[in-house]
């Protein structure tokens, strides 16, 4: 493969990460956080950002030991080819399931908020086709597109900030009422809302720049997302009273519903359109990741083809909720839970590599021996 | 000077043995503007062959016939040889020479053939291009003659780094095409790439640069133009100096500029002729016009057909009143008006100018008014379509204007199917396409995607000229530095 | 493969085109309802009335020629809506609602049971103004106003009174947070139809306890000072106060002063002392005299006197307003919310609805004249 074609800069890496992280979850983040930690949810988000930084550091250590390898190559080196392939398979399944979860949740929200009568498959098909179009041509295109749409995040922040004039700061007091234990436990949910940073695992070697620069980009992305999420959570917490937020699954949309401007009323529809961009970027990333991982396993099939196949599978999965309405709930509770395995697995690999004193050089020697 | 008259008779001695002559004679069989003149001087037979429709008679007389025939013939004088004559052995070259307005002189006894070039000056005078007007700035334009065009550029750039490479394109038409670039500023790799792509052209005819454009552009299926067409020498020159490459073909006043980005289509040489603050404002206006032109009708359709909650209170009743009783869905309404406008536009171009204007007025006023009072179209829709049409024509480039007008149709369809969601996805597709496109290795949507902050100063803004010390990176120039502190002077400097 | 994509996209688009546009909702096909009223009928059902402007199409677009009122009855507001829908000639569309009027009978029972309709619907207009009507709300919709549209008449009336700070600026969304909050209650504007059946007048502030209208209304200066204390005042609250008593002269205007509030700053301090809640509300106002026939404002001590006098009078008004609030058991200052924030332990052990009447709410109004028009 032409490596140069696939390389992105570390600045683009930043945008790639934040756009993958910002997605479906952002609309319901305050709701989720309030469910688990009540008014202290925002502390959990901050804490989650901190925890995540630790995880990112583990990734960084791993990549430092194995230069210019992605996680699947490293797994292959550490555990042997057979197990490495198995791990690859699991990662494919994981990316596909996260992709379909995004698709299903997105369809549900669009269905609920603007297009109640449009069949879900049309709404899904649009996202899938657009996702294919974006991810067939490699990481560079993804990075360019994500950079292009990032200013929309600023628009989101501005729109949401407009509601501050009617906020009541006392709704989040007293700080710490949930107790430290709950806050820590709640940070688990916050980490889930930040999912998307796994993209680092596969794309880290595809970024040009020194390790330091790359790690900086990753850390800044984490900082950005943490601050943004904390802000959004705080704004919704001080706008809605604690009792009210319990019945609003998408507080960030609801918050804008009553705001009108001279040229446009119902800003929530504008917000929803921007949000579709954000969802689309996450979906595109996961589709790309699935295909990228897939090409390690099915190396005879071209990336382009894999994107088509996986998109088709994801599209197929999006039909399942039509048969069983509970299915979405299963998906949205189990997939994020299993994702912990996948985001923490690299730290296990790091430990293994320390224990067995394996690093790139050693492995390559082993590799050539075997 | 003595009066010299061209002999009119075609008195050629057919027996003169002269190699090459027969071949030429055969090639120009049945070609009645092919002329041969034979003169005997001393012991030499001079045989002139040329196409009288291509050759400039004055020049032929003045430079060739008079010097050769009025004095004793002792061979081709050195002055002539150095002027524009050369000895040619290959008969094919002789034929192509004649076709290019040359005159072949056979010296039969010596068995030599000389080719002199006296092409007829067939060109209109230099005028300002009508389709690329500027308010302030040079008012000359390219013409159909390649040499004139190159000389226009050379007059502007007096530098030995100004390089011209000729290519003959079209198997039959043999259109002379020049690839022009600035050595040391333009990337030679792109020049090579251009020449590589040009070398594949094997069509028999090159009608216009549009032909070349289609043969060498990166993505022929894309709606977006990937080369700029211009008839303005100043625009061509500015692009040369930024490290871009220019292709000009014989017989067309249009130059192709490459590699270009999307934003280059929105720059006009007007921007650099006026001061930077108004220029920035106008440039911003153009980008706004792009957004209006592609999204406004779609946005309106989405609102009218799906999201009427979005309409402000003050507007809802006037809008409602205006669409009340319109028989067609908004999409059809919009299509009807858009197509009407396109028809008016096209008719206006084809007709002679005075009538064209009348058509515009008739179309704009009468149809617009009548259609509303007949209750076919709502008057708000007329406003929307008119605004869109105006926005589309703001683009300085005709090609981009066409593109913009076309893109809005799919967006309108998307919006009429799924409202804002459809419009959003339509925009997603457009922007992905813009991210994917590349023009000779330059990302088409740069400096936005990929983000190139330092290039933004001449993209969205038009920063003061003395701030732009560097050439734009998106021309892939090899020499980034343009100037150094052009405004280095101090206000109160001692004299 | 790219070819397949290129064929499939147009194919998809055409299929979409050929099939119906599922959510299409053409503006020309809808009947816009712009003001709504909800009332309780004697047999416990909900009576919903909606007005819709009649639009006459003409050359220059459309003009409004009066309005229609449609009414429907049902067990729930939604059912009443469906009843109206059955009587509507075009597609029912209430997402551009501007004014929502609730009859006081219904408001006394439970306001949320009406508003649920709006909160639940993604298309509903949450920016519509909510008001409580004296008597039946439908009477307000059936006013014979000179205006073509009753909705904009009511809307403009409310808006102008919001600026004058007689009534609070609230919409369906903005009361929601307080409705759900145990530590704060909301207030709404109170409207009354005039006897002649032609105009409506804004009366003041209707006080709520949780989701129920208490039946108490703050009117006149009490309403204005309440909104100032609550930090919810409009742009230019106005007062006219009698400053000189017992003048024998029966030409009254001499005894009064009128002023606008230019700037208001209020602070609410809540303390718990010996299990007793004390709330201090400090309000400092910067005012501009707009009417003062005794024109002696060039004197320093006159101004000082006036400052003191007016401060006292407004404090008295505030005390009166707070008394009404406590009688109505309406905690619209959000004292409970402050307790949750600062004294969570106290809050947990107290039955706030019982305790609220015992809270000592002490208003303190500080007034300062900063302007006097263009004469002194």
From TrEMBL, chain A:
Mode of membrane association: Multi-pass membrane protein
Record localization: Membrane
Coiled-coil region list: none
Protein's recorded name: Spore germination protein
UniProt similarity note: Belongs to the amino acid-polyamine-organocation (APC) superfamily. Spore germination protein (SGP) (TC 2.A.3.9) family.
Keyword Repeat appears in the UniProt entry: no
GO biological process: spore germination
InterPro entries assigned: Spore_GerAB
GO CC aspect terms: membrane
Pfam short name (any one): Spore_permease
Spans through the membrane: 12-31, 43-62, 83-106, 118-136, 143-164, 190-208, 220-240, 269-290, 306-328, 334-356
NCBIfam families: 2A0309
Keyword Transmembrane helix included in the entry's annotation: yes
Record's keyword terms, sorted: Germination, Membrane, Transmembrane, Transmembrane helix, Transport
From TrEMBL, chain C:
UniProt entry tagged with the keyword tRNA processing: no
Subcellular localization(s) per the UniProt record: Membrane
Keyword terms of this UniProt record: Germination, Lipoprotein, Membrane, Palmitate, Signal
Spore germination protein N-terminal domain ranges (all copies): 23-192
UniProt membrane topology term: Lipid-anchor
Record domain Spore germination GerAC-like C-terminal: where: 203-373
Protein known as: Spore germination protein GerKC
